Amino acid sequence: MNLIEHFVNGKLNKGTSKRTGKVFNPATGSQNSEVKLANKHDVDNAVSVAKKAFITWSQKTPLYRARVLFKFKELIEKNSDLLTKIIVSEHGKVYEDAKGSLTRGLEVVEFACGIPQLLKGEFTENVGTDVDSWSMRQPLGVCAGITPFNFPAMVPMWMFPVAIACGNTFVLKPSEKDPSCSIKLAELFTEAGLPEGVFNVVNGDKESVDAIISNKDISAVSFVGSTPIAKYIYENCSKNEKRVQALGGAKNHCVIMPDCDLDQAVNGLIGAAYGSAGERCMAQSVAVAVGNIAEPLVKKLSEKVKSLKIGPGLDKDSEMGPLVTKEHLEKVLNYVEIGIKEGAKLVVDGRKVNISKNQKGFFMGGCLFDKVEKNMRIYKEEIFGPVLSIVRVKDYNEALALVNDHEFGNGASIFTRDGDTGRSFASNAKIGMIGINIPIPVPMAFHSFGGWKRSLFGDQHIHGPEGVRFYTKLKTITSRWPSGIKSDAEFVMPTMK
Ligand code: NAD
Hints:
With 497 residues, the chain is α/β, with parallel strands linked by helices. The chain is built from 16 helices and 23 strands. The protein binds nicotinamide-adenine-dinucleotide.
């Protein structure tokens, strides 16, 4: 059985914990590997290595750090097929989708290559007579990242390239369901010339997360995962005086206005709801049908959902792969049962699907519910599977209220041809990321990513300019040289003249 170890101080590391977890190939249902689950000692060891590495790494020039990132970028490109296959083999998503997610991670590396420009501070000559003032951003120290299963390359890459470019060192705790990609990225970063100890990967579960929370040498924690765990991380890291950003779950609404281009909206919705088997934090899981668009929308959607090509991620024809684990598949199937019991109309029932060679894989088909109501659990809760709910409303205001009343605020989209409606939605939706005729409005690497309400705990969004702010602290210097005006002792608050 393949054993997935940790990566500490520039090399693979077995750690001291005897505990392991199982990693599956979701397409076959068979166990691929065993992954080491770190204990507190293993985490503390990685943090002390990162703390030591910070002393020299933080002193390297931004240009030096950028050059290592450039090499890392080249190595990711060279190894993109291998990295993509690793993602497919442990997560299950289809090859092209996995490759796309790797590219979105690579774009963060490209953004971080610009760190000499991004770290430039501000300078004011003569804030007072012969007194100058400037500000600069300095790294925090050891930063940690805790990431979910659904983007094993992209989400870790939202974090560590920016943190490391800023001069920090990093300990990543990836999802124990698909950890191999992080280990490969760490190996490539080392091959690119990253000094030992700057980027470390510790595999594990709650025990290792709790060790991160309690470690006094970690200055900042970035978390991406479900809302209950995000809240737990936010509260406990804050209590332990760490800077923290904790991105949580989502229930993204797509408002379909009666004036929209319906074919464009349906194509957008199909990809956004069923791509990656709905296991995306930016998946559209609620279609809000406004006015008389509902009937044609349901008709067109159901035809497309029925014809989804479901199969292993490495099959060229597959549009949708399996779910990540058997437990997750069962959880999603249970939500479908709940929806039926709650009285929603299951227009397309994808609970049973026949994948000829892969009977034991964690597959299900696309499910489509119509006439979903606000008080139903399938509307309120995140399902994180290929299940789209249609809620019918009478007008735009009712649609907007629905979006704004939901506890989550990650992404939302509107399909319309009316500029006023699109602009009103962008302005008034209480949501972090908005799409106008764009089904999945994921910001590019040079913007920042993050939700509102219970989709993000903390003040800063991730990557882009907010990422640089999160991984640095601001210092402002005011200086005068002796040749300037000599002054006597002053006992009043200095004001500049
Ligand atoms: P999860 O919350 O179960 O796990 C995320 C991380 O937390 C993992 O590393 C896991 O090991 C750790 N963890 C799990 N249980 C824990 C516990 N009790 N105590 C401490 N740590 C624990 O999430 P997941 O199932 O891996 O990923 C899916 C979730 O992530 C969905 O809710 C999805 O919306 C969310 N997500 C959000 C974003 C975003 O940007 N907002 C992006 C991707 C995924």
